[in-house]
Amino acid sequence: MVELEEQARALLSRRLSLCSNAPKQVVNRFAVDDSINVAGPILQNSERVDPSALIETATTKGQDHLLAIARRQRVDRPVTDILVRRGDRTVVVALVQNNGAEISEFGFLHLLRRSMNDSIVAENLGLRTDIPRHVFQQLIAKASEQVRRKLVSERTDLAPHIDSAVIDATGRLHAKFGPASSEYFQAKRTIRSLREQGRLKEEQIHSFAQQRKIYETTVALATLCDLPANLVERALLTDTHELTLVLAKALDLSWQTAMALLFLSTPEQRIYASQLAKLETEYSLLNVENSREVLAVYRARKEDYEQ
Predict the structure, then answer these.
(1) Among 46, 71, 102, where does a domain finish?
(2) pTM of the shown model
(3) Which helix (H) or strand (E) segment is 293 a member of?
């Protein structure tokens, strides 16, 4: 009787999964069903399922359920953040191959870590057009020769950049200042003194950034985040801004301070108003704990940046 009931629910699920006006209450109930035969069609195909039902299923159900979600035409970042943590290799491969899956900075760094010993994940991750530049650089630096050849052959637009990406990610790119420079030593002395006095706080970081004191700003952030200074410097000076926002959010800095950090990458202190508004929205959506987890991934690979 129970088996018959499941068969009936599975049949109804298949029909409702493709129905544009399917009753949401039924759809959401099927989405969290323990049976993959019932939940699968809804999870993979239905546009009527609520994000909360997807999150609940991704958090509590097994790998078959996660795989169905990973194959959806569109998967939002809150869901992919769960999939990259809980999913097995099959789920992760399906996710990185899905161009409709939106992946956050947090998600990309988790996928980077999972790709280190998996050429299939590494290849597909490198082929994503939305992969952040700094994640791509790290991926290429650690990738096997086979993976690099694959990326060169399938992404001709990336081929000219792969060699420079390897150089950049392994720490051989010349930074604007290094651990042997007098400016760096002076900045370290300043920051050490502020920390000993208990004054190394947001107000001081904001002041350094506003005065465009790149050395002091870099060392202050590196100290508070326990990260290599050259990694922080690259984050501050690149025009992609993602990692700068993550650094600021991990320290729970205000938008005003985060904005001051962003302007360090612009020689004339100019960022278009539309771009600034977009960055503010992105910053407001970042989560403090998730940002700290992102930095923990970098921290675990600290030696890669201290060469």
Answers:
(1) 102
(2) 0.60
(3) helix 288-300
